[in-house]
Design a protein that fits this description.
By secondary structure, the chain is mostly beta strands. It has two domains: 117 residues, Jelly Rolls; 210 residues, Jelly Rolls (Sandwich), CATH 2.60.120. The strands form four sheets. Strands 6, 8, 13, 14, 15, 17, 18 and 21 form an eight-stranded antiparallel beta sheet that branches. Strand 10 and strand 11 form a beta hairpin. The longest helix has 9 residues.
Length: 344
């Protein structure tokens, strides 16, 4: 379910204080771009004035400002990487967003039986091949057009399955054997023009319950919180630290780093210049489903306590001001805003 808020938000917590004001002037936020603001103190009130004469601003609150990677539009550009070992029982999970998966190759396993992959099928369906042998084909229209889906691939001998958003959608009983790596994005014959986010490799075959746990529990935010965390081998976050420093070293269009190991993904094929880092699924979902709309020349004032704010240009380049009155509460104490009788 999606919500677009058009009115103010209630202030949360019992703090009542005055701090130094915050002012940000943005002269030119390109259409379909995001400005992410992190306030030095928790806010008390925020006022936003849109000076643009066309388009609109989408604003909202999303503490998670993580990124994702949008693959090239037309070329065979892809990322490839190894597992660091030959694995016969393992789980790979990742999020994708695409307008239409069609027959594109979404992920292909390497170093074992050839033509082992997940690809699109029909209209919004998935097909699972091992050694170029089709398994059961999913129903059509199960993926979300222009929305986010989690795909989880479980390899375990002849008990191999693909899950979509925690639910098994296709199987393949062909003996899989062992694999040493993977490729995502495209090859010369089947380009996948989509976005990838948060990819994990576990060196154990998940049960159906463990797949659902990865999709629906806190593990979808951090794979180290999963009950099988001891078997987590690789974590590819697709993070270039555009809005926050989540990792010491940025990912780039040439290298997606393994955040817990040494199995980096590296660029292969030809990138055509359309590839780019974009908003990750949580920030993207907030922009498109949980945002406040400020039209051209519009203005809004919110009594709200927050430590961050996103602003998204939609329909045209946007020019705007952000003014915030601040409490004296450090942003890192935002989640201490509970209880009664606290005055700062």
């Amino acid at each position: 379910m999606s919500f677009v808020y058009t009115t103010g938000l209630n202030s949360t917590g019992p703090y009542q204080s005055a701090g130094r004001p915050y002012l940000k002037n943005v002269a030119s936020l390109t259409d379909q771009s995001t400005e992410y603001l992190k306030f030095p103190k928790v806010t008390k009130k925020i006022r936003i004035k849109n000076h643009s004469t066309s388009g609109r601003l989408k604003i909202g609150f999303a503490d998670n400002a993580r990124r994702a990677f949008d693959m090239p539009d037309t070329s065979d550009g892809r990322f490839e990487g190894g597992f660091g070992a030959t694995l016969t029982a393992f789980t790979v999970s990742f999020w994708i967003k695409s307008s239409d998966v069609t027959v594109s190759r979404i992920i292909q396993l390497t170093g074992g039986l050839s033509q082992t992959r997940i690809q699109g099928s029909g209209t919004g369906g998935l097909r699972f091949k091992i050694n170029n042998v089709n398994g059961t084909t999913s129903a059509n229209n199960i993926t979300t057009p222009n929305g986010w889906d989690q795909i989880t691939l479980v390899i375990n001998g002849t008990s191999n399955a693909v899950y979509l958003n925690g639910v098994q959608v296709t199987t393949n009983s062909t003996a899989a054997g062992g694999f040493t790596g993977l490729s995502i994005g495209a090859n010369a014959s089947a380009n996948f023009d989509g976005t990838y986010d948060e990819m994990y490799l576990y060196n154990t075959a998940f049960t159906a319950a463990e797949v659902l746990e990865l999709y629906s529990s806190a593990a979808y935010l951090d794979p180290r919180d999963h009950s099988q965390a001891a078997n987590l081998t690789s974590w590819w976050a697709f993070e270039n630290n555009a809005f926050r420093t989540y990792f010491t070293t940025n990912d780039t269009t040439a290298t997606i780093r393994d955040r817990i190991g040494s199995n980096n993904l590296t660029q292969a094929g030809t990138f055509d210049g359309t590839e780019k880092f974009v908003n990750g699924r949580q920030l993207d979902t907030a922009v498109n489903s949980h945002s406040i709309i400020i039209p051209a020349l519009g203005e809004i004032e919110l009594s709200v306590k927050t430590k961050s704010l996103f602003l998204f240009a939609d329909g045209a380049t946007q020019t705007f001001d952000v003014y915030a009155s601040l409490t004296t509460i450090p942003s890192e104490r935002m989640y201490d805003l509970t209880g009664t009788g606290i005055d700062v």
